[in-house]
Write a structure and sequence with these properties.
- The structure holds two protein chains of two kinds.
- Chain A is built from five helices and one strand.
- Chain A is mainly alpha-helical.
- Chain A has a domain of 75 residues.
- Chain B is α+β, with helices and mostly antiparallel strands.
- Chain B folds into two domains: 256 residues, Alpha-Beta Complex (Naphthalene 1,2-dioxygenase Alpha Subunit, Chain A, domain 1); 129 residues, 3-layer Sandwich (Rieske Iron-sulfur Protein), CATH 2.102.10.
- Helix content of chain B is 27%, strand content 25%.
- Chain B contains nine helices and 17 strands.
- Chain B has a seven-stranded antiparallel sheet. In chain B, strands 11-17-16-15-14-13-12 form a seven-stranded antiparallel sheet, with helices on both faces.
- In chain B, strand 16 and strand 17 form a beta hairpin.
- Classes of the chains: A mainly alpha, B alpha+beta.
- The interface between A and B is large, with 40 and 44 residues.
């Protein structure tokens, strides 16, 4: 399988296929469709590398990220999404918000 | 013991005696008849925000707006003379909706040189003039100059585009907004062009969601599970008090004091906040807004640290400005007495680096988690209000803005009905 992430983040490659998602709509849907053990595993593996990952992306201009750095940025966004469930709710969905929906219809790229 | 001084009358609510302090009814939020009156009395008479000028960046830029509560669709367009105009989205020929893509009910946007009707090919220029009729010679007495698109009153304040659906608005936009709002002139809204836009169909009356976002008494309770336990406990203990409320005409504002997130004990913060240096209140690193002096209308109580100002513009528009140098807007578009479309926009100065973008993403994701809780609670409120098992409800001093919204609603309906009666007896 071809690596998606920068070589320095090869250890996170197992999560790339699931979590390198370009839009919030996809990331939110993936979180909602995941189990807590899956979210916890992703968080535990990636959070210790988060600062390093942001620093890696930050070495490039925002509008000219190489493909592997862009994939890493998308992984960082997913980690931000998942952190809410892991750090605070201890459940996949926001507490007391099971039925609510709020669709992101426009966002900056990347 | 109050943490902030209250007005000499003893409370914010009593400072505005017309409000009273009695329990209030939410019949205006559960009655189909009230909703039908609101269409005419409010949404066809007040100035309504439909977007920002940045959505119309060049000549020929346009977007459409479905205003279901007023039973119309609008085209907003920047003309060749750079003027932003609004028209009813209807072809003068046979009444087809003029601008839409595959789905007539969905809003659209783009850039064009003219508008061409899909039905028989009539064409209108960017100023709304009819300039081409297919087989014109087949028509009888057709005066093209008198058959332009039906205009809608449209004015711009600080880059916010407003329309008024009345044949003749009773006030100009500036008069309607009044000094409490126009004193924000000079705030660099035009620099904050990085936008995150959210939309939601909410199963509750539009005013109930406005109420949810115009009091913060609920925050330490409803949102207690959005923060680490240590923070939630401290917040619940403290409760909420705003240092400043103000009502002016149909509009209202609440101003809050701030929390310096990075000065909190580490167990009060989320690990993700520490790394991204961001959270609900926005990125911790305030951008350079390039403004020497902030407008007088901002932070009216002079709080230090200051948190935010939430300006509630009648009828259905909120501008919420954070001390950390970004802002939110909310719009609440009624679709029935017990449903509406909510739109939330987050605006930032453009990110210069990936790190800045990550901080904004963190703010946007956090915003959504809170809003989901607010939205879910509303549907529960709507269904129980409709039971009419209880008909009157207490509001405390921190909920003064809710009290004001429902009073202004009643006042505008009464005013409309009085006008109508005058009209029929004349």
């Amino acid at each position: 399988m071809t690596a998606v992430l920068p070589p320095a983040f090869a250890d996170l490659e197992p999560y790339a296929a699931t979590w390198c998602l370009a839009t919030e709509t996809e990331r939110y849907a993936r979180r909602q469709a995941s189990t807590m053990p899956q979210l916890q595993e992703f968080y535990d593996a990636c959070f210790p590398r988060l600062e390093e990952a942001i620093a890696h992306c930050d070495a490039f201009p925002l509008d000219d990220l190489p493909d592997d750095a862009l994939a890493l940025l998308h992984l960082v966004y997913s980690l931000v999404m998942v952190a809410m469930s892991v750090e605070i709710f201890q459940q996949v969905k926001a507490t007391d918000a099971a039925d609510a929906e709020l669709e992101r219809i426009e966002e900056p790229v990347p | 013991m109050a943490r902030w001084p209250k007005p000499p009358e003893g409370s914010w609510t009593e400072h505005y005696p017309e409000l009273g302090t009695a329990p209030i009814s939410y019949e205006d939020s559960i009655s189909p008849e009230s909703f039908e009156l609101e269409r005419e009395a409010i949404f066809k008479r007040a100035w309504l925000n439909v977007g920002r000028v940045e959505q119309l960046p060049r000549k020929g830029s346009y977007f459409t707006r479905e205003i279901e509560v007023a039973k119309t669709s609008l085209i907003l367009v920047r003309g060749t003379d750079d003027v932003v105009r609004a028209f009813h989205n209807i072809c003068r020929h046979r009444g087809n909706k003029l601008v839409w893509n595959d789905f007539p009910r969905e809003e659209t946007s783009g850039t064009c040189r003219q508008f061409t009707c899909k039905y028989h090919g009539w064409r209108y220029d960017l100023q709304g003039r009819l300039n081409f009729v297919q087989q014109e010679g087949e028509f009888f007495d057709l005066d093209k100059d008198a058959t332009g698109l039906a205009p809608v009153h449209c004015e711009v304040w600080s880059g916010f585009v407003f329309v008024n659906l009345a044949p003749e608005p009773e006030q100009t936009l500036t008069e309607f907004l009044g000094p409490m709002i126009t004193d924000l002139d000079g705030y660099p809204f035009d620099k904050m062009t990085e936008r995150w836009q959210y939309r939601s169909q909410v199963g509750a009356n539009w005013k109930l969601f406005m109420d949810a976002f115009q009091e913060f008494y609920h925050a330490p309770v409803l949102h207690s599970n959005q923060t680490p336990d240590a923070f939630s406990a401290a917040a619940a203990q403290a409760g909420f008090e705003a240092p400043h409320y103000r009502l002016e005409g149909p509009h209202r504002l609440v101003s809050t004091s701030g929390i310096v997130a990075w000065e909190l004990a580490p167990d009060m913060r989320k690990p993700m906040e520490d790394i991204t240096r961001s959270g609900l209140f926005g990125p911790w690193d305030k951008p350079d807004l390039g403004v020497e002096k902030m407008p007088v209308g901002l932070n009216p109580a002079g709080c230090d640290p200051w948190g935010l100002d939430s300006f509630q513009l009648w009828p259905n528009f909120t501008i919420l400005i954070w001390s950390s140098g970004w802002y939110l807007t909310y719009q609440y578009w009624p679709t029935s007495y017990n449903s509406h479309t909510f739109e939330g926009n987050l605006y930032f100065v453009p990110s210069r680096t990936p790190r800045e973008r990550v901080a904004r993403e963190m703010a946007a994701v956090t915003f959504k988690e809170y809003a989901l809780q607010d939205g879910n609670t509303l549907e529960a409120t709507q269904t129980m209000l409709e039971s009419r098992a209880v008909t009157h409800f207490h509001l405390n001093d921190q909920e003064i803005l809710c009290r004001h919204l429902h009073k202004v609603t009643a006042d505008w309906i009464a005013d409309y009905q009085a006008e109508n009666e005058k009209g029929t007896t004349r």
